[in-house]
Specification:
Elements lengths: L1 H26 L15 E7 L6 H9 L6 E7 L6 H8 L6 E5 L5 H11 L4 E6 L2 E3 L3 H11 L4 E3 L2 E3 L5 H22 L10 E5 H7 L11 H11 L4 E3 L7 E3 L5 H13 L7 H24 L4 H28 L4 H25 L7
Parallel strand pairs: 1-2, 1-4, 2-3, 6-9, 7-10
Antiparallel strand pairs: 4-8, 5-10, 6-8
């Protein structure tokens, strides 16, 4: 009987959590960049690269064609063993204000630190070498910041798309993370962001330096958010189609697993109770699903409980994904949400345990 009450409790908490996300998402208004004079505001765009010769040229081409050109570009080479540094130097002439740095430290956090300390501008935008920003990306960011001054602005990210099942499921899973982070900020409880498209003030970063867990290989974005949130800084989500960047999907299940393992490995260093609570609820309902499946093999009564728990989670997830589908341009949400719900509990439990047991030693 105790397990039935426990299942009911976890399902209740999960439903409340997703309901908060739905409310938070609806609270955020679509931002339409105004035709205001923004050319008097310069920003620093930071790109940290490690073996990115395949992607860097495309990103630099996009940056050179941005509708807003009043920015300082800072490229940081994190000990690449390919032609990344050569490409940086060869394309520097396309920009009027560019800095190229060979990182003296190791890892993405150290590289970002060197970039931020060298930045001349007040507002810093980070993205990754494998990202492609929209034409009005920087223009929308500057316009938003001018209207809504913030210490941290979470911007939208989406994955490249292909017709394979793995691609579609990966895209939906990634969108659920990005949308959850956005919705949580709308609910007044920011918990997630992505350095692939992140904006913050240099002052805010300097104030947070001691909270960035530099010993962790990843998490430069989450730990910055936690620090700014802890001291009551203003954090907003930029809900605008023109603010998107598109990033590459993992090419294989192995690459996908390694990426998610890196993300999960930093979770023991989290200090924000709302993020910890959210992670615990998501992990608990996933673990509960796996355990109930095991119990069902020995006692058929647990099949009913398993179906009930699965149905609650699926309906909550599907409702949330339907809420955000228009902004993220999702298709066939119900079918792929169902398929993802079948695999997700096993994936999340496996990644969580292996990330803690076999902690990744590098960020790429």
């Amino acid at each position: 009987m105790l397990i039935f009450y426990f299942c009911l409790f976890i399902c209740f908490l999960y439903t409340i959590l997703i309901t908060l996300f739905i409310i938070g998402w609806k609270r955020i208004s679509i931002f339409v960049p105004a035709n205001v004079e923004v050319t008097n505001m310069s920003i620093s765009v930071v790109v940290v690269c490690k073996n990115e010769e395949e992607h860097l040229v495309r990103l630099l081409s996009c940056l050179a064609q941005q509708s807003y050109q009043s920015f300082e570009l800072i490229l940081v080479n994190d000990h690449s063993s390919d032609d990344t540094f050569k490409i940086m130097n060869n394309t520097a002439s396309a920009f009027s204000n560019v800095k190229i740095i060979n990182s003296t430290g190791y890892g993405k956090k150290q590289a970002i630190k060197e970039a931020v300390l060298s930045a001349n501008e007040h507002l810093i935008v980070t993205t990754d070498a494998d990202c492609l920003p929209s034409f009005h990306w920087l223009e929308s960011i500057v316009s938003f910041y001018k209207k809504y001054p913030s210490e941290l602005i979470i911007c939208p990210v989406r994955l490249t798309y292909s017709e394979s099942l793995f691609s579609k499921l990966q895209s939906l899973e990634f969108t659920s993370l990005v949308a959850s982070g956005a919705a949580a900020s709308g609910a007044g409880m920011p918990i997630l962001c992505n350095a692939a498209n992140l904006v913050f003030t240099k002052k805010a970063w300097l104030m947070s330096q001691d909270d960035l867990q530099m010993e962790e290989q990843s998490g430069d974005d989450i730990f910055l958010l936690q620090s700014i949130k802890k001291r009551g800084g203003v954090i907003r989500f930029l809900k605008s189609e023109s603010a998107f960047v598109t990033t590459e999907q993992a090419n294989s299940v192995g690459d996908f697993y390694k990426q998610r393992q890196r993300w999960a490995a930093k979770s023991p260093a989290y200090t924000d109770w709302q993020l910890i609570f959210t992670a615990c609820i998501v992990f608990s309902i996933s673990l509960l699903t796996v355990v109930l499946l095991g119990f069902s093999l020995y006692n058929p009564i647990y099949w009913k409980v398993l179906i009930a728990v699965f149905s609650v989670k699926f309906l909550a997830d599907a409702t949330f994904m339907f809420t955000v589908r228009a902004f993220f341009q999702l298709q066939y949400v119900l079918w792929y949400a169902f398929m993802l719900s079948v695999f997700y509990p096993f994936y999340i439990v496996f990644v969580s345990f292996t990330a803690l047991l076999f902690k990744p030693k590098s960020w790429k």
